Amino acid sequence: MSTETIRLTTAQAIIRYLNAQFIEIDGEKTRLCGGGFGIFGHGNVTCLGEALYDHRDTLPLYRGQNEQSMGFAAAAYAKYHLRRRFMFCTASAGPGTANLVTASALAHANRLPMLMLCGDTFLTRLPDPVLQQLENFNDPTFGVNDAFRPVTRFWDRITHPAQVIQSLPTAINTMLDPADCGPAFLGLPQDVQGWAYDYPVSFFEDRTHHIRRQAPDPVEVAAAVALLESAKRPVMIAGGGVQYSGAVAEMTAFAEAHNIPVIETIAGRANLKADHPLNIGPVGVTGSDSANAIAEQADLVFAVGTRLQDFTTGSWTAFAQDAKLLTLNVGRHDASKHLAQAVVGDAKLGLQAISAKLGSIQAPSSWTDTAKSERAKWDDYVAENVRPGNRPNSYAQAIGVVNDLCDHNDRVVAAAGGLPAEVTANWRTLDIGTVDVEFGFSCMGYEIAGGWGARIAQSENEPDQDTIIFAGDGSYLLMNSDIYSSVLTGKKLIILVLDNGGFAVINKLQNNTGNESFNNLFADAPTIADPFAVDFEAHAASMGANAETVSNPAELGEAFKRAKAADKTSVIVMKVDAYEGWTTEGHTWWEVGTPHVTDNPKVRAAHEDWEATRPKQRKGV
Q1: How many structural domains is the chain composed of?
Q2: CATH number reported for the structural domain that contains residue 115 in this entry
Q3: What is the DSSP letter of 215?
Q4: 145 near 98, Cβ under 8 Å?
Q5: Which helix (H) or strand (E) holds 471?
Q6: Using CA atoms in the order 346, 348, 350, 353, what is the torsion angle rounded to 10 degrees?
Q7: The domain containing residue 48 runs over which residues?
Q8: What's the chain's Rg over C-alpha atoms?
Q9: For residue 337, which of 350, 345, 326 has the smallest C-alpha distance?
Q10: Lower CB density within 10 Å: C or N end of the chain?
Q11: 411 neighbors 405 (Cβ within 8 angstroms)
């Protein structure tokens, strides 16, 4: 082994190592790190900034407008690349770094790789207390960066340049691990960033990574086969992990070979095209009548690549009490939920192994025919639900218009608020992996920032396709500055701002639980003296985007055609009704806390109605 060394600063070593990492995807070698998002400050500009400048051609640095939105963009980039590539985010010490905590939590909840290279206070402590330092009087080692410990899969503070040799490869291995995938955080004290060390030259040699595939245990496969052989009414739940495993073809082949209906989670929303005969629709709180009806009748629920969050399970009321639960998941924690019969392993390998042992066994055709019949009824409902003119302007109508006019491999992005439910229920998938509904952390503000990150990724592979964003007025007001980012970087977005006058979906929940509208819609906020409509068109235009306001779905369609033909970001604004515009079907029960004691008869009645469904809830067995 060579003993040759090179003297570099800590920051230079980190960036040089990242620059030398590659990954093989479908037989092609590409750079593992697609670059980064950065806002410089005194905690990262002098040392890390110097190192990044020397690699600006191979690790492009996108200038963010807000650290939280940078993290959202990095998460969306990783999601587009199915967790096989990542971007880093760099922020200065103090509030810049603190702004990344929410984005890190989003990446953690969604199991997405993202590397954070964040400034930290001086290791020597000689200049303490420094600008933007939060002093912990009882523990001087405890600071803002420690807030990332619960929202990262790997956390470290670099206290000596040599530490990079162990810490950085571990961070990358964590981000690429199928089971433990998630964000990694490296705290970089301002002085340590600039300290030099004689690194082995071999540390910076090119390395090509591969995503490990874990084969399932034969004993667990046999147990899964036994359950499937005895099932009379099986159903498959296809989650986001199916796409991350690259197992869409295997999942489809499994369903077809064994005649099993498939229902999708929110993260797995584009595992099957809408017209596949075994696609029975999305399941759960934001699902479809068809999928929920089949889920409730199933005697075996085979969940593949899903963490079974409450919007999928209807807070565990979506399935019969005596239904058996079988899971296939690369993560032990996700596979073993609710005492399921777990098969721990890669979805692609697991489906192949189980199918081979099942042989020619199929679910009864009467069961699958029932599922298809339910799906046909749901399709009829959606067709009417998205039809312009059936009621005041609605989310569903806007979704239907865009669905009819977009290209098959355009990417759709939505998050939080009411749009995840509306997109999940009403969007008819035109191609595999084209729907990104961020509902793992249900994070408002992801839409535009995530769309920008997705567009950066999409432009690497499909430069002629569009990234289409559905955003409510609440999310727009929360985080919109990456409209400017998209224009500056030439990453075209099509953004639909559907304005219902506030946080209308929470107002709906408020009303559905017997409460009066209060502090969600601008019209019902008691501290607002004179509510007025925001001029979203003028605001978006001021950031360099094409922008127009339309009055109805027909005008929206024409505006969308203009946006498709344009060469830069376009924002289309349409008002929608806050009360009458909702998809009313397709919902399972969802557990929310309602007052057990109240003087309000409407709240009391709503509580009793809500609690009436609780006996259906599975208790973990």
Answers
A1: 3
A2: 3.40.50.970
A3: P
A4: no
A5: strand 467-472
A6: -140
A7: 5-209
A8: 25
A9: 326
A10: N
A11: no
